[in-house]
Amino acid sequence: MPLFLLTNWKAILAGAGALALLLSLGWMTHSRNEWRATAKESVAALTLTGERLKVASETAKASAIANVVAVKEKQETITKDIINDYESKLAASATASERLRDRAEAYSRSTSGANLSAAREGACRAYAGTNCEAIPTLLTEAQKNTDQLTSLQAWQREQETLIY
To answer: How confident is the model at residue 153 (pLDDT cuts 50, 70, 90)?
Structure first.
């Protein structure tokens, strides 16, 4: 056998090299296939994540739009209630003013000046529904309400300019 090895050592060495190359090629092919499978899984996971993100984004956008619509509806309801309240107060004020005007005309036609304080008190009651001393307090409260309504209307105009 040593003679065989001595005479054919180049062929044996070439065969061993070829075997090493075949094993190396097999290992590289196996590694390549594993990498491809991993890459396909990664692409699939990334695609799924992208789809989930898109669905979540659309859901959040729809929720935000629904919230804006709900807030706007609530704002409109509050504004209508305030407007109705002030219109009713304005109507009551007009009625009281008319009563006061009628009493003032009646007073100016009367010749008796002795009932001046009673007429003044009657005019206060006809106009404000209370005695004359309470009118400044009522006027202050009415001014506060008017200021609140003015600021609410300004806020509503700002809200209407927002782009939804």
So the answer is: confident
Reading the block at residue 141, the tokens are 């409260």
| Nearest-angstrom CA–CA distance, 104 and 98 | 10
Rg of the chain in Å (alpha carbons): 47
| Amino acid at site 74 | K
Both ends of the chain: CA-CA distance in Å?
A: 93
What pLDDT was estimated at residue 73?
A: 92
Q: Please report the pLDDT score of residue 110 as a whole number.
A: 65
Q: What is the mean pLDDT of residues 51-63?
A: 94
The pLDDT of residue 164: 53
Distance CA 92, CA 86 (A): 10
What is the distance between the alpha carbons of residues 74 and 67, in angstroms, rounded to a whole number? 10
Torsion angle, CA of 78/137/96/101, rounded to 10 degrees?
-140
- ∠ Cα 143 144 147 (to 5°): 85
If DSSP codes are grouped into helix, strand and coil, which group holds residue 162? coil
Residues 155, 90, 119, 134: is their CA dihedral positive or negative?
Answer: negative
Q: Are 103 and 122 in contact (CB under 8 A)?
A: yes
Between CA 164 and CA 159 the distance in angstroms is: 10
